[in-house]
Design a protein that fits this description.
Elements: H1 19-31, H2 36-42, H3 48-52, E1 55-56, E2 64-65, H4 79-113, H5 124-133, H6 142-158, H7 166-171, H8 174-183, H9 190-200, H10 209-239, E3 245-249, E4 259-264, H11 269-278, H12 281-289, E5 295-300, H13 301-309, E6 318-321, H14 328-332, E7 339-342, H15 350-355, E8 361-364, E9 376-377, H16 385-401, E10 415-419, H17 423-429, H18 435-443, E11 448-453, H19 464-475, E12 478-483, H20 485-492, H21 506-515, E13 520-524, H22 529-543, E14 552-556, H23 562-573, E15 577-580, H24 590-604, E16 607-610, H25 614-632
The structure holds FE(4)-NI(1)-S(4) cluster.
FE(4)-NI(1)-S(4) cluster binds at residues 266, 301-302, 324-325, 346, 454-455, 484-485, 525-526, 560-561, 563-564.
């Protein structure tokens, strides 16, 4: 392979940890289009002020940049204020996006309960459990109860910031509530918290870095209990709770002979309707007439994980997961994708230039998403979902007719994957009680649990950091739970197969073999970080301790965007040591850096660990797990 322009130090194109993506990178270079890898190089060197979070662009006196010569902005704001304020603003974007996702699910549950959508209530037990918890009369018929729960969640979302969120009080461990109440960070509704945070971070309203950091914690709790746990709970009620399933991942799963539709984004509603529609005899016949051997729907990023987790199978037309955020341009470069349905976030504008080299059509399926040059929009409406799904499948069939077979190049790469893990699945696998898992932890066969989650980032090479950390942890008998783009990373490298237990330490290997599970469990999309919160709560409750006492750590080794900022702060507030890479833009303030990496631990039990070397990061997480084991006397 020739020397790669994007990574001058490498002898081959090693920008990605995945061979399939590197092969497609060569293809994009032949095609003369740039990708994330190339544009990353073009952006070097990047702005040091931005990297450290010490650039303020809020008012027209700015931009102000903090230096030794100019230690304050024109208004007098210090580096501490600017860094803390920028952090809260990043997080606010995250909570805003999560709230959009949640609202789409609430609207869909309501319309479904009224019989107006192609969906059916997928988990009636969970509906009754949660409805009972929030005080609804569970003797009511399913649809009526679902509608009432949707109304309650909508009210919760819109609650004032002075009205504590019901889900926090009902679901959080008691010890956590005490810590949060003491700090005065019990949150209200996410929309009000967002309003407050954005108001506070206007120029010259809240310039106290400590109060801003408390705001960051508070925002993260509203995000965690509504945007994460609320969303996954309602999604389970609507689409079903994940159960064990098998699937496959990587670019090599693309079938050159079928109509290929990619579900790309985070909200799995349109994709679920499209899978249903694609199976109808009418659509199958249209595909045959177009010369295709069928219709396949593929997952990409978090929407794909949602589909896979809920057991969408090949028999139902779901063909598996193509990859994560960095894979998006490369999946199109295969020339075998007919239609990409882009929902909510993480569709990058770079996709359009690659799509223009082929017949591939990009369509936005969410009213908030628009991309320069993309003319087709089928904005999701619950009541119209069935027709919209048919329209999308027909669009894909039309595109298939224009596919140029001579331009199709599908790389090798087709990894089997076991998916569908959740608290319920784990309980099922363990015979209804967490005890066998807890015993394995107590006896040291499993040293601890690490949630390796969140995005992928090219700053240190696509998926390389995450994969190294996962491998180091399992080698040292730490069970890994993956979610978000890190799930795809693990799937493609065979870590979500029971056979991957061979790469684990002896203790974890034995447990995995006994249960027939992989050492890296797929918990799903980034919103499923909420599911990890539920799991850690269940473990803490079972042991009668606070989450901060558990041998549990979190890592977002390749964090990228604003939702991940909110997730990371939530993990800290939840009491976990939270490894974050690359270095977040806070180092321009010694105060903020110290609070996040040290002081906050005495307040909420968790703290941020910043370490860019994946081996050292794993080592530090292992030390933390060992410390917590000692604390528990195990
Ligand atoms: Fe986007 Fe979820 Fe991040 Fe991946 S993980 S880069 S948000 S797709 Ni959430």
């Amino acid at each position: 392979m020739s020397k790669c322009q994007s990574c001058p130090s490498a002898t081959s194109c090693g920008a990605s940890a995945h061979a399939s993506v590197n092969q497609m990178h060569e293809r994009t270079k032949e095609l003369g289009v740039t990708t994330v890898f190339d544009r990353y190089q073009q952006q070097q060197p990047q702005c040091g002020f931005g990297m450290q979070g010490i650039c303020c662009q809020l008012c027209s006196h700015g931009p102000c940049r903090i230096t030794a010569k100019a230690p304050q902005g024109i208004c007098g704001a210090t580096a501490d204020t600017i860094v803390a304020r920028n952090l809260v603003r990043l997080e606010s974007h995250g909570i805003a996006a999560y709230t959009h996702h949640l609202e789409e699910i609430i609207k869909t549950i309501k319309a479904t309960a009224q019989g107006k959508t192609p969906y059916k209530i997928g988990d009636e037990n969970k509906l009754r459990d949660i409805a009972g918890l929030v005080g609804l009369d569970t003797s009511k018929p399913t649809n009526q109860l679902a509608e009432e729960l949707a109304d309650v969640m909508l009210q919760e979302m819109r609650k004032g910031s002075d009205e504590p969120l019901a889900l926090v009080k009902l679901l959080a461990p008691k010890t956590r509530l005490e810590a949060w109440e003491k700090l005065g960070i019990m949150p209200g509704g996410p929309l009000s918290e967002l309003r407050d945070a954005m108001t506070k971070t206007m120029s010259n309203i809240n310039t106290d870095p400590i109060d801003l950091l408390l705001t960051a914690l508070r925002l993260s709790l509203s995000t965690g209990y509504m945007g994460l746990i609320g969303t996954i709970t309602l999604q389970d009620i609507l689409l079903g709770t994940p159960s064990l399933t098998t699937s496959q991942a990587d670019l090599g799963i693309l079938d050159p002979e079928t109509v290929n539709i990619v579900a790309h984004g985070h909200v799995p509603l349109v994709a679920t309707a499209v899978i249903q529609a694609s199976q109808s005899e009418e659509m199958q016949e249209l595909a045959r007439q177009a010369g295709a051997r069928g219709i396949k729907v593929y997952g990409s990023m978090c929407t794909g994980q949602e589909l896979m987790q809920r057991g969408a199978s090949s028999a139902q037309g779901f063909a598996g997961q193509l990859g994560n955020w960095i894979t998006q341009e490369f999946m199109i470069a295969t020339g075998a994708v007919d239609l990409v349905m882009m929902d909510m976030n993480c569709s990058i504008p770079g996709m359009k230039a690659v799509a223009d080299k082929f017949h591939t059509k990009l369509v936005s399926v969410d009213r908030i998403l628009r991309m320069a040059g993309v003319q087709d929009h089928v904005d999701y409406e619950p009541e119209k979902a069935a027709e919209q799904a048919k329209e999308l499948v027909k669009m894909a069939i039309e595109q298939f007719k224009q596919r140029d077979a001579s331009k199709v190049q599908i790389p090798k790469g087709n990894a089997p994957a076991v998916a569908g893990f959740s608290v319920e699945t784990i309980l099922g696998a363990l015979g209804g009680s967490l005890d066998p898992l807890l015993d394995a932890v107590k006896q040291g066969a499993i040293k601890g649990i690490a949630a390796v989650v969140g995005c992928t980032n090219n700053r240190n090479g696509h998926d390389g950091q995450g994969l190294t950390i996962m491998k180091e942890l399992i080698k040292n008998d730490v069970l890994v739970i993956a979610a978000g783009c890190m799930s795809s990373a693990a799937q493609i490298e065979y870590l979500q197969t029971p056979e991957a237990a061979e790469e684990a330490g002896d203790g974890l290997k034995a447990v995995c073999r006994m249960l027939g599970i992989p050492p890296v469990l797929n918990f799903g999309s980034c919103v499923d970080i909420g599911r990890i919160g539920v799991a850690v709560t269940a473990i803490a409750n079972a042991l009668g301790v606070d989450p901060s006492q558990l041998p549990v750590v979190a890592s977002a080794p390749e964090y990228l965007e604003q939702k991940a900022v909110a997730d990371g702060v939530f993990a800290v507030a939840f009491g976990l040591l939270t490894h974050i890479g690359p270095v977040p833009p806070v180092t321009g303030s010694a105060l903020v850096t110290k609070v996040l990496t040290e002081d906050v631990e005495s307040l909420v039990g968790g703290k941020v660990l910043v370490e860019e070397d994946p081996y050292k990061a794993a080592e530090k997480m292992l030390q933390h797990i060992e410390q917590k084991r000692q604390g528990l006397g195990i």
